[in-house]
């Protein structure tokens, strides 16, 4: 028996065991979906993070405009323009913006002008909520994802 292990039969068996042609391709095919899911997840999370940063910047910019608009005839329009200019990558129609001057809601130039007239030194607040999308290849990671930002400035 010992002679047969050292002969041609043993070498052929060892060679067959060492032959792994195609094994790396099979491993790659098994791992590829997980790698793509991770890659798309990173990209999608980066987009949502960018949206959050833009939302914060837009809220800050519009609150600053409201705070310095006591003498303006179009404070609400100017604040919304500042928001739109600071958030070019967001879908403006889905953002829900709420403006408060001294805890009084203002949703038009006339409302804001009236509220700002007697609000020197009092708070002006902008609150914005924006829907986010964390859907990766049909898998919803977070249901009802909403980004929110709020900034308060003192009216000058």
Secondary-structure map:
Blueprint (H helix, E strand, L loop, with lengths): L1 H4 L2 H11 L4 H45 L7 H12 L9 E6 L2 E2 L3 H9 L5 E9 L3 E2 L2 E2 L5 E9 L2
Antiparallel strand pairs: 1-2, 1-3, 3-6, 4-5
Helix pairs in contact: 3-4
Task: Please characterize this protein's 3D structure.
It is built from five helices and six strands. With 156 residues, the chain is an alpha+beta fold. It is rod-shaped and about 100 Å long. The relative contact order is 0.16.
Short account of what is shown:
The chain is an alpha+beta fold and 156 residues long.
If strands are numbered along the chain, what order do they take across the biggest sheet? 2-1-3-6
Low-confidence stretches: none
Beta-strand content: 15-25%
The outline comes out as rod-shaped
Structural class: alpha+beta
Strand count, sense and closure of the main sheet? 4 strands, antiparallel
Helix count equals: 5
Question: How much helix is in the residues?
Answer: 40-55%
Radius of gyration: 30 Å
> Mean pLDDT, rounded to whole units?
89
Q: Could you give the distance between the termini? A: 100 Å
